[in-house]
Design a protein that fits this description.
It contains 6 helices and 21 strands. It is of the alpha+beta class. The protein is globular and about 60 Å long.
């Protein structure tokens, strides 16, 4: 597996968010994703790495989350530290979210589970090396058109979609909720949680330390909240969908049961907090 380089150029990877950029001779001056108010430039300034360097420093961390759902991370964690999720279906597997470290060990683990038929990503902070994943498996990448401007490495494999939902193979559905980003998306997996349904949320819905709850933010590192009306709309969009379990963006961040009600309760608590406060502070 070769590094993504073209004609003496390199597809540099931002060390803070993990986004891979279009090939260039020298690293870009800045990462537009990190300059945005939802993210940040690293405390040591803008830093870059490459896939070759990542492959030397990181190893695959592959874990079964439940039958037909595999978490794929790296050790040590890199950049934001999220893990991807591979959903297996009889009509082809879907990779949910991406992470920058990607090598033959990861590719072999994915091939052993049937490969990848499609890639879908919750929001731009997790675009990472999506082109590398796509080329390795010949899989299209489905991204909401609302977040087109945040694609740092355009590629013909990227298919932009409009509207509130997109159906994928195996009964999976992408739901555009917005919030964290205009195109913020979650993945509904009706066969998950032993048939009770699961929602894969990235951090569009953030599973918090008390894993009975989720939260909603425009920026998590910079603590920028969302308007109450937006959070109400996000929760309302999920009401028709059945799911008992919710998988967030990191290993261990899972609402194990009663997740549909957890989203409802969490949205109500959030709205109350930003409109009325709690009356004890």
């Amino acid at each position: 597996m070769e590094d993504l380089s073209e004609g003496g150029t390199t597809a540099f990877v931002c060390a803070t968010c993990g986004a891979q950029h279009s090939p260039s001779v020298e690293p870009p001056e800045e990462c537009a994703i990190c300059v945005d108010e939802r993210q940040y430039v690293g405390h040591e300034g803008q830093r870059w790495t490459t896939l070759a360097e990542l492959r030397r420093a990181h190893r695959a961390d592959v874990r079964e989350e439940e039958p037909r759902l595999t978490g794929i991370g790296s050790t040590p964690a890199f950049a934001i530290g999220q893990r991807a999720l591979l959903v297996e279906t009889a009509e082809g597997n879907v990779l949910w979210d991406c992470l920058a470290p990607f090598d033959e060990e990861v590719a072999a683990a994915v091939r052993a589970r049937g490969g990848i038929a499609a890639i879908a990503i919750s929001h731009p902070h997790y675009y990472s090396t999506m082109v590398e994943w796509s080329r390795a498996f010949g899989a299209p990448i489905f991204l909401p058109a609302a977040d087109r401007r945040w694609v740092m490495r355009p590629d013909p494999a990227i298919e932009f979609w409009d509207g509130a939902r997109l159906d994928l193979p195996g009964g999976l559905t992408l739901l555009r909720l917005g919030g964290h980003f205009a195109g913020g998306t979650v993945l509904h997996w009706p066969a998950g949680a032993e048939g009770r349904g699961a929602l894969l949320s990235g951090d569009i819905l953030q599973v918090v330390a008390d894993r009975r709850w989720v939260s909603f933010m425009r920026s998590y590192p910079n603590l920028i909240p969302l308007p109450a009306a937006k959070v109400e709309a996000m929760a309302a969009a999920l009401e028709p969908f059945r799911f008992d379990r919710l998988y967030g963006a990191w290993f261990g961040r899972v609402v194990a049961t009663d997740a549909h009600d957890a989203v409802r309760r969490s949205a109500a608590r959030y709205v109350r907090a930003v409109t009325e406060g709690f009356g004890d502070g």
